[in-house]
Amino acid sequence: RGRPKRLDAHDRRIACRMIRSGEAQTAADVQRDRFPDVPAWTVRQALQQEGLNGRRK
Questions:
Q1: 3-class DSSP state for residue 50?
Q2: Which pick of 11, 17, 24, 40 has the fewest CB atoms within 10 Å?
Q3: Domain-by-domain residue ranges, the chain?
């Protein structure tokens, strides 16, 4: 129900893979390269929900 998520499970996996592989270092990098229509804050929240945050990879 309700509004669909801006980043679905597949998008979240892609974002995590970009961070873990070193292709991107920050949520802003991921947003700029892969999800230009989504705010960086949304990407950052998705990464945090997947267990990635600014203190560790």
A1: coil
A2: 17
A3: 9-49
The radius of gyration of the chain's CA atoms, rounded to the nearest angstrom, is 11
Is the CB of residue 11 less than 8 Å from the CB of residue 31?
Answer: no
Distance CA 1, CA 45 (A): 21
pLDDT in tens, 32-51: 999 999 999 999 999 999 99
Does the pLDDT at position 29 exceed 70? yes
**Helix (H) and strand (E) counts for the chain?**
3, 0
pTM of the entire structure? 0.86
Nearest partner of 29 among 45, 18, 37, judged by Cα = 18
